[in-house]
Amino acid sequence: MSFTKKQISNFLSGKILFRFTISNEFIIAFNEHEELFTFDEIEKVVESNLDYWKTISDKIPNNFYSNWQSLSDRIATIRKYFTELEEFNLDDVTHYLYYNLSTSQESRGQDSFTYIFAISSPIDRDAEIRKIKSFVSFYIQQTNTYAEEAVKCFIRLSKNPELAGSYLSNSSQYQFYPALYLLRKNFSNIRENVSDFETNIVSPLTRKLEEISAESDEQYREITAFTETKHNEIQQQFDNKVIELEEFQKSINNWQKDKQDRLANLEETYKNKLSLETPEQLWNERAEEYRKRAKNWTLALVINVIALIWIFKQLVLVIHNYSLNIKKEIPFISESFIFISVISFFIYIVRVLIKIVMSNHHLAAEYKQKAALTRFYQSLTYAGTDIDREERLIIINSLFSRVDTGLIKTDNSNDSEAILAILSKNIKS
Fold this sequence. Notes:
Elements: H1 5-12, E1 16-21, H2 39-57, H3 63-83, H4 90-100, E2 105-109, E3 112-118, H5 129-142, H6 147-159, H7 164-168, H8 173-187, H9 194-329, H10 335-382, H11 389-400, H12 413-424
Helix pairs in contact: 2-3, 5-6, 5-9, 6-8, 9-10, 10-11, 11-12
């Protein structure tokens, strides 16, 4: 972030002040220890003096302008430093001012300092600056050389008027003209002309008013910029919060929809469980029952086969002797026919027993498959799988169709159609 001039002034207020130290040869009535300035004030003082000596430099070369220009550049660097600060730390600021602005400083208490600017030039905060400027205006009309020396001579004569005679006799223009100017002022009893009045009174007042106006405009721009910046920041934060709320609302809606879907799936699963729990239990019981029957019939088959083999062994002799008597009475019946008939009867009995065993195994597997299919259908419903009408009809058809025992082939198409017709009325599309 960047700080405004007002914010910088508030930070520095009472903590950091500035003053000038100027040689006596450049001042008439200026007390450097009493004239203390804030950073904003020192900036304006330097600017006003720089502007004045720049106008003089355009007419007559002088070092006063370059001195103020150098100080103005340093102050501009400090101003830029202030505006680029991310955080205002007083210790960092004082260190920066010491190494980049002025190494001369005075302590005024805890965390309070006064930085001193040494400059070789008259200053407009001098109480007699009007006299100096008036002389400068007079001097540049007479010559365009030795401006600094002329100003120093004028200030020296202003403090020591008795030296004017010796300066008048001097051939150097920078000594002669200051003495001449003072004699004209003192002995001719002539007031400053209109030009001097305008230059030394009206112009400074005009510049002061312009400074006040510029300062007001600048403060207005700062306030406007600050307000606009904060408004934009607040608007941006508001927009971000709106976006966050929209995203949050969207996530809430998605979460609500997901929970509603899951709840609907759970309700559907529960309904299916209620409707299919009893058939599933019945089919498991039937599967276990037929499995046990298959074991029992298998055991019966083994026992019957062993018994039949033993019976067949015992009957061989009996049938042989009996067949001899039968053969005498019925000569067309052979002995082999009787044996084949008995063996066929035994094989028929074994085949019937095998079919009963296989039928029970088949029924046990069918009912176990129905129970597994029921559980699978319930798991699909719980997982939220979208099962359409045709798929449900296929599943229900598989669940409730008649089981083929394997003994007798029956046509159960009519019954299946009746069951599907009844169930389809309660299936949701």
